[in-house]
Amino acid sequence: MEAIKAPRGTRDILGGESWKWARVMDVAASAADDFGFREVMLPIFEHTELFSRGIGDTTDVVEKEMYTFTDRGGRSVTLRPELTASVMRAYREHDMRRGPQPVKLWGRGPMFRYERPQKGRYRQFAQIDFETLGAPGPMADVEIIDLSMEIYRRLGLSNLQVVLNSVGCPKCRPVYREALKKYFASGFDSLCETCKSRFDRNPLRMLDCKNDECRKLTENAPAVTDSLCGECGAHFRAVTRGLENLGADIRLDNRLVRGLDYYTKTAYEILSGDLGAQNAVCGGGRYDNLAESIGGPSVPGVGFASGIERIVITMEAQGAYMGREPAPRVYVVTSGQGAENEALSLAHDLRSRGVSADLDFMGRSMKSQMKIASQAGAKFVCILGEDEISSGTVAVKNMSDGTQETSPRAAALEKLERIASRKEESK
């Protein structure tokens, strides 16, 4: 019988890598706290119409990539392909607009898109997501972009650039749509089938096409900034000035429209020069019409999402500090018969004092246990032989310099708590 493997486009994050993810999450949580964002935990699946109406039925996500199925109650549900629509749904459903505005929320967890797997891109992927709801002004945009950059600064990333554009609003976007249609009409026959289908429905999506011929055609497409209304133009200039004031490295890109239809005004990505073709570390922007598209009064919003896989790959490429790989500070080694209970008791006491500890469960020899302790990266070894057990003492060996000292059990615990606790580790 053939062994069952993980589905294509998914991967197991094992113990040798998960600690790197934990560092990203810890830094994101710390930045969220400093910027006043509160964490939310939302369903992994939602009613399909939340995404088809919110994201847009002409996007690649809705047309090609969603994991949608009918549940046993006959309802169409979808594994979430992104989190922004869910955050807005939660904001409205729980009537958060009654409280002080804006509401700053963030979340993390797995997302699902059926797309071609490649480096840093999977069908199940993890994201951190930050959203500011209820603030219409451009400084909210500047803050959300600054927050994303601050997370990367704290993670030690460099060689990052903010790529910025405006996609206008319902007032000025129709003007731009017509300008795009007029431009693309002359090269219509060279477009891919997907872009041909979008020509009348949503020509902005054509700017996001990955087909080589279509991308060549978009190089000289009209700039959206030439069609912006007065309000959108002023908003875009204020965002640009705000980012310049913070010292951000900015590049304007008229083709940046992002892959989701709910964006209005600001659209941005942060790119890394160390990721090759798939070089976006995060993407986001403003979405003032999302709430209306999913049924409700208008709620201005701005946010971004960042893939954990992409962040970790970038950190590795740049040699950024990844945190400390988990290792027991103390390994309890036993010799002689009947020492297992004493060893587990000592490990229990160490752990209750905040000292990470491990021990052997395989009946290995003392020499083999010492080897395992060294391989595990233990800083200290507690040795419990027959003499130590009978006298109520513990022999503590410092693995870095080889020194060893035998002390009463209580004294050994106090010393190890002082020099090997998690509190000491973090310094």
General description of the model:
This protein is α+β, with helices and mostly antiparallel strands and 427 residues long. The chain has two domains: 15-172 and 228-318, BirA Bifunctional Protein, domain 2; 330-425, Anticodon-binding domain (Rossmann fold), CATH 3.40.50.800. The chain is built from 16 helices and 16 strands. The strands form three sheets. The chain has an eight-stranded mixed beta sheet with strand order 1-5-6-11-10-9-7-8, with helices on both faces. 38% of the residues are buried.
Q: Nutshell version of this structure?
A:
The chain has 427 residues and is α+β, with helices and mostly antiparallel strands. The protein has 16 helices and 16 strands.
Number of strands: 16
Indicate the CATH architecture of the largest domain. 2-Layer Sandwich
The assembly state of the depicted protein chains is: single chain
CATH evolutionary superfamily of the largest domain: Bira Bifunctional Protein, Domain 2
CATH fold-type name of the largest domain: BirA Bifunctional Protein, domain 2
Classified by CATH, the class of the largest domain is: Alpha Beta
For the largest beta-sheet, the strand count, sense and barrel status come to:
8 strands, mixed
Q: Stretches where pLDDT falls below 50 for ≥5 residues?
A: none
Class from secondary-structure proportions: alpha+beta
Q: How many independent structural domains? A: 2
Order of strands, main sheet, comes to 1-5-6-11-10-9-7-8
Give the strand content.
15-25%
